[in-house]
Amino acid sequence: MKASHIVLGFAAAFLCQAATATLAQADVLDLGTVKCKDFLNSSKEEIGYTLAWLDGYYMDEDAAAIIDFDKLKANSGKLGAYCGEHPDVGVGTAAEELFGK
């Protein structure tokens, strides 16, 4: 595992620990079961954490540990538009459709 992925893992853990509330008051967010409509109705903070996690998850294994906020914003728009058009699709399915390899 590259050092950049370890750093991203620690950052993700910190962000998750810092969150005061999560989607539907859950301690765990299963992207395989959360529907787009529920995701879109969650708080900006929850959406932001999830989008940051997805960005790291779909990052190439050899990619540098760089957060590209322009790319994150663009991907946010793509996921928001997709979920708006497909409210009953799971967030994980939507992300895989848009960002999968």
> How far from one another are the termini?
19 Å
Major β-sheet, in short? none
Category by helix and strand content:
mainly alpha
> Roughly how many Å is the radius of gyration?
13 Å
Give the total of beta strands.
0
Pattern of helices and strands: HHHHH
Explain what you see.
The chain is built from five helices and no strands. The chain is an all-alpha fold.
What's the short story on this structure?
With 101 residues, the protein is mainly alpha-helical.
SSE blueprint:
Blueprint: H1 3-18, H2 36-40, H3 44-57, H4 69-85, H5 91-99
Labels describing this entry:
5 helices, globular, 101 residues, mainly alpha, disordered N terminus
